[in-house]
Design brief:
The protein is of the alpha+beta class. It has one domain: tt1808, chain A (Alpha-Beta Complex), CATH 3.90.1570. It contains 3 helices and 12 strands. The strands form 4 sheets. The chain has a 6-stranded mixed sheet with strand order 3-6-7-8-9-10, with helices on both faces. Strand 1 and strand 2 form a beta hairpin. The longest helix has 20 residues. The protein is globular. The mean pLDDT is about 95.
């Protein structure tokens, strides 16, 4: 009878692997390495545009720090890489040398065709369990953006917009986001 190993890789062990191989994005999910695809042009474009909008808001009001695609330790056996991460000034102590040492205030995922299920179900649950206060999902193919706020251990919708609408989502309720700016023509 073969012996199966049930040893899971920890976040600490995962971070010792170093940089990802070219063309893939590695994450740690419940102790197992998950391989994700490289970004599509639509995904990258939406990320850059949203990053510019958020950076201006965050910097001008000295709200905290914004990051792009950084290993984030959610639990002992789970390390994810949200497309964008915001840490409020009061929580910047969680920004480590090699990774974020806890959940961000805001995690943003930009859906690619191959990540719809992961972003809408798996990461939605993982971020909820880890205590990510706000979660946004941007879908360039459907031209939609949705936001949620963690309340009493559950995500509650804070808004949704599509196509060329202008929306405002927590935690930046005074920031108007023109969605047309996120979509490639």
């Amino acid at each position: 009878m073969p012996i199966l190993s049930t040893t899971k890789m920890t976040a600490e062990q995962f971070l010792q692997l170093g940089e990802d191989p070219p063309g893939v994005r590695l994450e740690l999910v419940e102790g197992e390495i998950a391989i994700g695809p490289s970004l599509t042009p639509a995904h990258s474009f939406a990320g850059v545009q949203l990053c510019q909008l958020l950076s201006h808001q965050i910097d001008s009001k000295k709200l905290g720090e914004l990051y792009f695609d950084v290993n984030t330790i959610l639990r002992r056996f789970t390390v994810r890489r949200p497309d964008l991460l915001f840490f409020s000034t009061a929580r910047t102590h969680l920004i480590g040398e090699k990774a974020m040492l806890g959940p961000p205030d805001l995690a943003v995922e930009i859906i690619s065709p191959s990540t719809i299920e992961i972003d809408r179900k798996d990461k939605f649950e993982e971020y909820r369990k880890a205590g990510v206060a706000f979660y946004w999902i941007v879908d360039p193919a459907a031209k939609t953006m949705e936001g949620w706020k963690l309340e009493s251990g559950r995500y509650i919708s804070t808004g949704r917009g599509e196509k060329d609408q202008v929306i405002q989502l927590q935690p930046f309720a005074d920031l108007s986001i023109p969605l047309s700016r996120l979509w490639r023509n």
